[in-house]
Amino acid sequence: MSSMSGFRTLAGKELRESVVTGRWLIAAAVFMLSGLGAVVLTYYLPDLVRTQAGSGIAIAMPRQTATDAVVAYAKDLDQLPALALILLSMGGIAEERARGVAALILSRPVSAGAYVLAKFTAHGLVVLVGLSAAALASFGYVALLFHPAPLGPYLLINLGLLVMLLDVVALTLLASAALGSGVAAGGVALVAYIALSALPGFWAPLNNSLPTGVTGRTSELAAGSWGGSAAVQPLVGGLVLALVCLLLAAVAVRLRPA
Amino acid sequence: MAAPVEFSHLTKSYGRLQAVRDLTLTIPAGAVLGLLGPNGAGKTTAIRILATLGRPSSGQVTVAGKSASADPDAVRRLLGYVPQEIAFPNWMSGRSYLRFAAALSGVEAKDRGARVESTLELVGLTEAGDRRTQTYSGGMRQRLGIAQALVHEPALLVLDEPVAALDPIGRSEVLELIRGIKGKVTVLLSSHLLDDVDRACDQVAILSEGKLLAHDSTTSIKERYGGPVFHVEVRGSAAGLAQRISGEAWVEHALADGGRLTVVVRDPARAELELPLAIAASRLPLLLYRRELPSLEEVFLRLVSSSAQAA
Question: Which chain B residues contact residue A19 at CB under 8 A?
Fold first, then answer.
């Protein structure tokens, strides 16, 4: 039996589950809300500040640009959607195991790797679709409210976000495979996500190997002062991190299938 | 085709606790074996290792010569498994779950539809097949559990407490189903319901505290571990008769209930001579006299309590 036997059938089940349980809709709504909200808020920020400041105080607010809107978009997409993904995927393995669903699946000729990868594929597609929708809509809104953002850097920012969010899913599935409950897995995944976002701030060389190397430099990217081949290593590093998490999750499932 | 199962010196420890101790047991191909034991006897642990969901500390289990721990995929292809706690994705219908289970077990796409329909019919879920599993009653879920274990026509069917959640009619149907596949599939049935095991199984293995206490055909185990029982019915009260024979060396115990008397004996040959004489001496009109093997429950209780006393 190959190490991926049963993958197609399992992935089909996971994808149908994503649709039937409305996971796609929830993710798309959260991504769109975050992306468009950031762009619109950036546009109206000077007016909001003026309103809040009152009539007697004069605040010099620099004019907001398309670059500011793209930076705000990237920052927001890296927060609420990540939390939503943790909530949507934390029970993926732990709860199937606790309810007894996993025992019926894993006592069949199915590999632990295929079981984990099928879940990752379904959640990954949710990320891809949600992010694509948010990216397209936000790109249009930036063009409408400001002027069109440079396409290359905008795509690279979204690629960085995609890898970062895939890492969030992989970390959550690893926690779900290693722990006995979905809630515990969610807590551990949240801590891991905070660590993933914050650690490069304490030790800059980590940025060379983690997607924060891209998502943390959106200002430079949007302004066109950084990018290109320099972004490859952090993106590859992020994909390697996801792969390692998935391998460890498969080992955890193999050691304790149900 | 049915597959033989062999537990060979199987031991499973959790820290200092030995859940299964040196279990050696052979189930011939096509046999229906009832695995009995009190709570914590190690039945589910042994079954989970057989179902490739647990690993032994030492020893092994083989199905048709394939080791469950060294070659789990080969064993999974031969296996149909119904766990104690059974659950399905709530959003799936019974029919779509069976299709999913059949696909996972490698049933060819062209055969899948027919196989799913015949299995649904076998467990009486054809009409409810398109309903979501979350709307199923406990009994329907149990029957779907058995269906998913049979849909790929396994060589070995492992059922861990399969009738616990069923009403008497449902239990009877499941036992009928097991009797129907006897010979074609090897069946390992773990149950607390000893009458059901008595009705469905042709072999019995009794576990207590992880150890195998007895394994034999259902009839042999009753003959070997429990003396025959005599049922007597007289007109009037049998209490005096029970009291009179209770002290005899050939009597293990005698229990009177109105005119009915149940006598469990130590020495069947002497009992056959002495009991009719005792009844005649009581001068009570005899309505019924029957010699029977003890029930599986009596044998089970006797073996488990002797094992506990020895420990």
Answer: none
Answer whether A108 sits within 8 Å of B76, measured CB to CB.
yes
Beta strands in chain B (DSSP E): 5-14, 17-27, 32-36, 58-63, 66-67, 79-82, 156-160, 186-190, 203-208, 211-217, 229-234, 251-257, 260-265, 286-292
Which tokens sit at B258? 């109105």
Are residues B93 and B56 located together in one domain of the fold?
Answer: yes
Per-residue pLDDT for chain A (258 aa), expressed as one digit of tens each? 456 778 999 999 999 999 999 999 999 999 999 999 999 999 998 888 877 776 667 777 778 899 999 999 999 998 999 999 999 999 999 999 999 899 999 999 999 999 999 999 999 999 999 999 999 999 999 999 999 989 999 999 999 999 999 999 999 999 999 998 999 999 999 999 999 998 888 888 888 889 988 888 888 887 777 777 788 999 999 999 999 999 999 999 998 888
Find the residue in B nearest to A13 (Cα).
B100
To test the contact with chain B by mutation, choose from A108, A119, A256 the residue with the greatest count of B C-beta atoms within 10 A, namely: A108
Same domain, B208 and B265: no
Nearest to A176 by CA among A110, A100, A116: A116
In a shared domain, residues B48 and B172 = yes
Cβ <8 Å between A17 and B51: no
Number of domains in chain B: 2
Q: What is the pTM of this model?
A: 0.84
Q: Where are the domains of chain A?
A: 7-255
Please state the ipTM of this predicted complex.
Answer: 0.86
- Inter-chain CB proximity B81 and A107 less than 8 Å: yes
Same domain, B18 and B135: yes
Establish if B149 belongs to a structural domain.
Answer: yes
